[in-house]
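Folds vary. Our protein:
___
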Amino acid sequence: MRQRTSLERRIDLFASRRLARAPTTGVRGFLVEAGVFVAKQAWACVFGALLLAVIVAARLWYPGDAVLARNDALTIAAVLIQIAMLAGRLESGRELWVVILFHVTGTAMELFKTDVGSWAYDGEGVLRIAGVPLFSGFMYAAVGSYMVRVYRLFDLSFTRYPRRWLTIVVAVLIYANFFFHHFWWDLRWILVVAVLVLWAPTTMYARSWRRVVRMPVLAAFAGVAVFIYLAENIGTWAGAWTYPDQIGGWEPVAITKLVSWFLLMIVSVVLVTFVYPPRPPSAGMRRRRS
């Protein structure tokens, strides 16, 4: 099992004591396992959930005449959340490097995409690079935080995982296509096919509590992409950024963005494998699967 932080070990010990007499079979046993699974997912999402809560709170209650611009307040809040994650031992120093890499690659994409008009931020604030407020990079960092934490919390393992050099090649092509499709052919559908072919044989094993959940890894990728898409709708509703078709008034983000998020998930997964290389499930996990 991958090493947990000191706080997570205390929480795990507390929960294990409370659940020691919980049923292992039947409806109640299923509900206990489902509850633990949901709680772990929520714990893995804590960075993104806090950041999204701050964005919504700023939309609802931040005063329009405040001396500190709203975008600058969001950036400061994002920095404080990241500091709290480290101080509270919710992320290790090793995992922080992956989160920083997400931040850098995400900010680079933001600079390009806002320049070509794919989306826009309002002009307030001084904590920005060109037209991009610095809190935008933390939204990508939140995805990175979730990815590294979910690997550890669920002790993820895989069967028939693709060769890592092939996954790196595909991830690089996906990231490059986010830029080059504005000037050249859009290869996204070819890249989607490449992802399906490469990861279709892969099965993911995730340890909930007493049971191990087994699922096609592509289903996990798609599920996370859907949740990010829902968070994106909340973020645009809160005015964190605006797509061209939302300038006249908010409307749901185009459903086609799901494809972009699905592909971005692949880039995210490959980045995380530099911290947690994919490994096969142990014999115990195979026996305990549900």
In short: The mean pLDDT is 88. The beta strands are 128-129, 132-133, 157-159, 203-207, 212-216.
